[in-house]
Amino acid sequence: GQNIDQPTEMTATEGAIVQINCTYQTSGFNGLFWYQQHAGEAPTFLSYNVLDGLEEKGRFSSFLSRSKGYSYLLLKELQMKDSASYLCAAMDSNYQLIWGAGTKLIIKP
Amino acid sequence: GAVVSQHPSRVICKSGTSVKIECRSLDFQATTMFWYRQFPKQSLMLMATSNEGSKATYEQGVEKDKFLINHASLTLSTLTVTSAHPEDSSFYICSARKIAGEAETQYFGPGTRLLVL
Q1: A80 near B CB under 8 A
Q2: Which helix (H) or strand (E) holds B53?
Q3: In this model, does residue A56 exceed pLDDT 70?
């Protein structure tokens, strides 16, 4: 079957770095997404990886290893506004997104 | 790298009006583009596959007369939500497929938030 796993909740300190991991199993693979979602709002697109390696975009970076079925989202210089849920989603061979349950990130001063 | 843009990024409209969302591939030609919709707390759902110069292919349950797709050029696909209703409020995302030799990559737009009052 198709499955996405990511931690339910993580806590980090303002100004620090946090890494949110995601493992996936899908029928075929057409890339992996990370979304940020604040409570009551629609998810905001953060990144899309389809090739192995690290992609950096400002304070956020996303890594993919297709052979391991593994991705992580790295957030640097954490700010209080980064408190949100982070959703990992893998796209299968039919271009459908398989979603993880989301990781709730709590930032403490 | 390849970039896909969407316009507008967010739109608020009255019930009964039509809304057009544009999806552009900025530095490559895309014969195929995809349109997705995401409702709050639900998965992103593929609505249709847009093919340049031909009719779009709609997923089951998606009304083709309500969600009009036009892929008139290799860099532009448009999604028009006709006679929009509050239940059409959602996050719409497009993607464009880039083919370079035997390599195929999809690039996603940032999304458009639609709120129908």
Answers
A1: no
A2: none
A3: yes
User: Confidence band (pLDDT; 50, 70, 90) for A105?
Assistant: very high
Among A2, A95, A96, A98, the residue to mutate for chain B (most B Cβ within 10 A): A95
Using an 8 Å Cβ cutoff, are B14 and B29 in contact? no
State how far the Cα of A1 lies from the Cα of A83, in Å rounded to an integer.
31
Tokens in use for A103? Answer: 């990781």
Residue A40: the pLDDT is 55
pLDDT digits (tens, 9 = 90+) for A66-97: 999 999 999 999 999 999 989 898 887 766 66
- Confirm or reject contact between B36 and chain A (CB < 8 A): yes
